[in-house]
Queue: 2 jobs
Job 1
Amino acid sequence: MPTCLITATNRGIGFELARAALSDGWKVYGSVRSESAARQSAEQLGINKDYVPVVFDVTDHSALHAAARKLDDRLELLINNAGIITPERQTPLDMDFAGFLRTLEVNTLAPLAVSQAFLPHLRRSDAARILTISSQMSWMGYRKADTLAYRASKAAVNKVMQGLATDLEREGIPVALIDPGWVRTSMGGPAADNCPSEVAAGILNVARSLELADTGKFFKWTGEERPF
Ligand code: NDP
């Protein structure tokens, strides 16, 4: 049975990714931030013995390394999904700098920290891969100034993952980025274009077919490669 770790499986895209992976025959370790979220996600995912919630905040490096040390399994796939779109004030001329730093911690630094912590588990598999959820809002072609902290954090995670891809290429572990489109979650809001279950199925398809030739690339959830 293939095994994956998905961050933030208690709601939104992460929850649907866990559901899609379970129904596709994966064993799923899902990171959540509290015991109550662990219980709730397990209940909603049908108390499936193939779903194992793991409690850590992705920005708490000691907690995530402790969780990694406790996990005695190999991983075929890591999906870095946890993310935030705060702070409220995030335009170039009105920036909440503390909020900007927090966004960088969650969206940019944490995917690298989680990848490092669980690399030993990925190395145990001969078909391991890492997929990080970025955003079309990272695209350098947009000159938009709104939600700047979020845009910058996703542009930065693209660069971080490109670097990780280069370093892990010699180990045969592909690392790629994915744009989920605009999705109806609490982040995307009710007017968004796409339903989370459809997007999750698309992301899982991309994850399943990732090869070393894809390393360092940025894909749309529908599978096409997209520009950075
Ligand atoms: P949601 O706001 O619905 O869910 C965010 C998830 O991230 C929650 O499970 C939340 O946990 C978790 N999370 C937030 N901070 C942390 C943290 N410090 N440690 C661990 N988990 C954390 O967002 P979506 O599902 O829409 O987004 C998922 C990913 O997709 C994000 O990376 C987002 O940037 C990206 N994305 C989403 C788009 C959209 O339209 N929805 C568009 C483009 C990209 P908790 O419940 O504990 O807060």
Job 2
Amino acid sequence: CIPNTQVSSTIPTTTLVTSFTSPPASSTSSSSATRATSTSAAACSALPGSISLKANPKLNDLFTMFNGDKVTTKDKFLCRQAEMSELIQRYELGTLPGRPATVTASFSGNTLTINCGDSGKSISFTVTISYPSSGTAPYPAIIGYGGGSLPAPAGVAMINFNNDNIAAQVNTGSRGQGKFYDLYGKGHSAGAMTAWAWGVSRVIDALELVPAARIDATRIGVTGCSRNGKGAMVAGAFDKRIVLTLPQESGAGGSACWRISDYLKSQGANIQTASEIIGEDPWFSTTFNSYVNQVPTLPFDHHSLAALIAPRGLFVIDNNIDWLGPQSCFGCMTAARTAWQALGVPNNIGYSQIGAHAHCAFPSNQQSQLTAFVQKFLLGQSTNTAIFQSDFTFSQPQWIDWTAPTLT
Ligand code: MCU
């Protein structure tokens, strides 16, 4: 296996990888086989190792490569996604390691044990699976950070992923604590959200390896609420095997855009911003600290993170809590939607902001929307997912100075 080569912070070759994770494993219980790191032969231009960043107050153009090339084809958009992933890792989230040299798994009594080894170190962690009372095995499943905060859908298994065990999130002093850092070292650049995403990818590896778990690894969703919603969005962005991403009330670091939140704060909103959030928990790489007071220089925003999920399913569930920046989230996801529109699948992204309920208490009036996304992406049904609603407005001219092409 090729450790840590799939996405590196400085890409030394002339091509960027176009997939962020390994292809599905064979059905053997352990794997040390060499894995391909790119899916398409499309040559992507490499990002320079060192970049001089220019301030851009608008949301970054999703369809222009860093070198100025226009993105007009779906193939080229894969390059743009790989490039945006690289930029986000480099400046905000830290480097996502690829599949470690060994991944083995075993299953007993609804508990899936995942063992990972690399460079002489090894870790083990478990997830628990709750099976649906309807449907047929192998079941689709939703991986829930901390169990998630959504009702279990009919016919879908729920996988309880203890993300705090992979990377702790108690306060900034938690940096470097958790199984991820036991394997890769306390000084690894990955912030907690990248570490968790790595863990989710290993859970999917394990599901591929262990048919006895009775989960269909081609029908995997991911969810989490609040801080764990931020994490769920990052996992969906980084692993293309996840077919449905369900971030709930994720706010800053999730569905909100740093630029819009800074603006709303300047207008008097009580809203979490980049400069505030880094003092709370080690969710990001320490590199991000240097940019939180110069957000316009970031060569991406969170519409770019969300756009890594396209054309796969993304349903963003929000509340109306000021601190979480619902107006920023709506604008940010409206900008992200251009990626799905350009790919010809505008209804593979949904956005729903409904307030008047407690934080992370999923309200019944979002249920039919959630069900539509789950049925379409996890149960293969044909449902109406044309859902894009908010109590807030988004001033497109203020934030977007580019147009989305129709990608061929
Ligand atoms: C929305 O996520 C976070 C938020 O970023 C924090 O500032 C706040 O303290 O906690 C939220 C959360 O995770 O609540 C459970």
